Amino acid sequence: MIVSTPFNMYPDAIFLDKFPKMKTINDYKMHHPEGAIIHYTAGRQEQSGEAAIQHAIEQGYCYFFINQAGMVYQQFDLDRYGQHAGLSKCPVTGRTNVSKYYVGIEIACAGYLENGKTWYGEKVPSARKRANDKGEFQIYTVAQEKALLELCTWLCLGGSNPEYFFGHDEVTNRKLDPGASLSMTMNDFRIKLKEIVDGIGK
To answer: What is the predicted pLDDT for the residue at 8?
Structure first.
């Protein structure tokens, strides 16, 4: 993993020259996100990077995108924020509209399943499912989790707070992501992230 500061682009990210940048609204107060919100695409698990970037641009969203192979796409300047979380409230600070403070990370995964099927009616094999108290979810791939942790570590080394990394379900009661798609709870993810960052700092 390459660490470089100051920065606007994640060194391992893919930027698509054929597309414009995603829509941003304003600069982050500290010119860097304080944390991140973890999402899943809710059914477009095979979505390509190009399709994901095009969708975000068309809908006016702004986020990192991680495909199933663990490739990270970034089509925006990291010192500026855009919408990705909708109506939301941070469980720690109490601030609303968390997109102003935390960058979005969208992961290609069906997420929550209805009767073992995706939003689009595709059946998910047992090996690709995991359950929690909310129900069954398609799991993130090993490559996606590795890419997610490396990206979040890099964000923290640039100034983000490991305690400000949340699941979409933690900032709004309208969503379930990441749920059991992630192999650990978000609290355990924050602990692991802090341990990695602290270890690098020693």
So the answer is: 86
Question: Amino acid identity of 176?
Answer: L
For the chain, the domains span 26-201
Bond before 6 cis per omega within 30 degrees: yes
- DSSP structural state of residue 140: P
The residues, any chain, with a CB within 8 Å of residue 91's CB and separated by 6 or more, are 166, 170, 171
Q: Is 6 a residue whose pLDDT tops 60? A: no
CATH number of 26-201: 3.40.80.10
| Band (39; pLDDT cuts 50, 70, 90) | very high
Sequence-separated (6 or more) residues with CB below 8 Å from residue 134? 112, 176, 179, 180
Rounded distance, CA 141 to CA 101, Å?
A: 27
Task: Report helix, strand or coil for 21.
Answer: coil
